[in-house]
Amino acid sequence: MRVKIRVPLNPTEDEEKVKNAILNIFPDAVMRTEGEYIIAETNNLRTLKELLEKQRIRDTARDVLMTSIVGNHIVFKINKQVATVGRVNFSVTEGPLGDIEVDIEAEEGENVNEIINYIAPSTLPPGVEPRRLSDDELLEL
Question: Does 126 score more than 80 pLDDT?
């Protein structure tokens, strides 16, 4: 799998703080600045997985990730400001300073559902269906 990360860098922001926000979630990311964006790449989702477990939001994350599948990609946004303190908060609407845009690409032979099962395994017992959130409920997250 390949993980591509794109984060807007606003003129009022400290570039190092934005990079640290990325590193809080993706510590192995290799970064570069392209115009008004910081672009990063990694293939390691371990810290993201650990943060979801630590914050006890695996099922919510799983729901967000399952609704973020586009072909062989999982595309979602993480709140940039929250990431500066090492926490994950999925963005449904654009944050005031922009968000961390994440694109996880399943490579040949990989399955997006298996990637989601790794990042956010269900905490529900086998046979129990997860509750699906409505759009209004997702906006309240």
Answer: no
